[in-house]
Design goal:
Keywords: NADP, Oxidoreductase. It is built from 9 helices and 8 strands. By secondary structure, it is an alpha/beta fold. It has a single domain, classed as 3-Layer(aba) Sandwich (Rossmann fold), CATH 3.40.50.
Length: 302
């Protein structure tokens, strides 16, 4: 069910910066309207909105301020897409965080700098990285069914969806879970014969290695874990693969495409992992000592 994006409409969470911004920019250049759903916009995203105003005769970009942990605000994205463009054809729940200090396994809730509140019984990281894409996928499926048309839901997972990493175990858990979620929805693209009248819905994903975005470069605590040869991948390269998730016939539902030094499909079973594709991410030697030191201090009651 390859979809030509020209004349279509996309909702993209997290498109105020990084990979999702690059995906939004690429879609707009191909004639696709975009609802940019994010909590804030970087200057480059503000410039993009100016380049594709709602009064344009061609592709249009609209900003909808969205906190992806608030389900009512996720509903609003679809309302905006319907009001301005008659609905969405592509929905990318791309917003994500890389285990920040304010929601981090090694800084338990209630222990600064964590802002996770023990009384809330929630981790913000999981609300953003896992609950949000699951909920957006539910909403997108309902949207496509109610509009009686096919749709694409490209997700953003990570090489961390296959590889363990001691410093960021909750992030790793969220991406492992998202891989399984995407693969489980593969049948939506090919309904059984008795349900052939249902619209085809493609759910697939891109799995980048370490990406050169402000998420890394503007956060010193993250840059400290980067080795001498980080092997950066550009967000533009990832966006091109994401476009392929929508437009290419062979990247069917359930497909996960890894993007690093090479681009390859990640198999569900017996896959060699990121190293097998030449996409291993190296880290600064000794970075894990911080985790051990933290455990030692708690053990000693310091």
């Amino acid at each position: 069910m390859a979809m030509n994006v020209e004349g279509k409409t996309a909702i993209i969470t997290g498109a105020g910066s990084g990979i999702c911004f690059s995906f939004a920019k690429l879609l707009l250049s191909k004639g696709c309207n975009v609802v940019i759903a994010d909590i804030a916009l970087r200057p480059e995203a503000e410039a993009l909105l100016s380049q594709y105003p709602s009064t344009s005769t061609g592709a249009k970009a609209i900003f909808q301020k969205t906190d992806v942990t608030d389900w009512a605000q996720l509903d609003k994205m679809f309302e905006v897409a319907s009001t301005h463009f008659g609905g969405a054809d592509i929905v990318c729940p791309g917003a994500g965080v890389y285990e920040p200090p304010w929601s981090n396994f090694w800084h338990p809730p209630g222990a600064p700098p964590s802002k996770d509140d023990p009384s809330s019984s929630r981790y913000a990281l999981l609300d953003i990285n896992l609950t949000h894409p699951i909920r957006v996928t539910q909403l997108a499926i309902s949207h496509f069914l109610s509009h009686k048309k096919p749709g694409c839901i490209p997700h953003i997972t990570s090489v961390a969806g296959q590889a363990p990493f001691f410093p960021t175990p909750v992030y790793v858990a969220s991406k492992h879970a998202l891989n399984g979620f995407v693969r489980s929805l593969a049948p939506l693209e090919s309904p059984p014969p008795s349900y052939h009248h249902l619209p085809k819905i493609r759910v697939n994903a891109v799995a980048p290695a370490r990406i050169l975005t402000p998420l890394w470069t503007e956060n010193p605590e993250k840059m400290r874990m980067v080795g001498k040869e980080p092997g950066w991948v550009t967000p533009e390269a990832v966006a091109e693969v994401m476009l392929g998730l929508v437009e290419r016939e062979e990247w069917v539902g359930g497909t996960i495409m890894e993007v690093g030094k090479t681009v390859r499909e990640v198999r569900a079973f017996d896959d060699p992992g990121p190293k097998g594709g030449g996409n291993n991410v190296e880290n600064e030697a000794g970075y894990q000592d911080e985790m051990w030191e933290g455990l030692k201090r708690r053990f000693e009651g310091v």
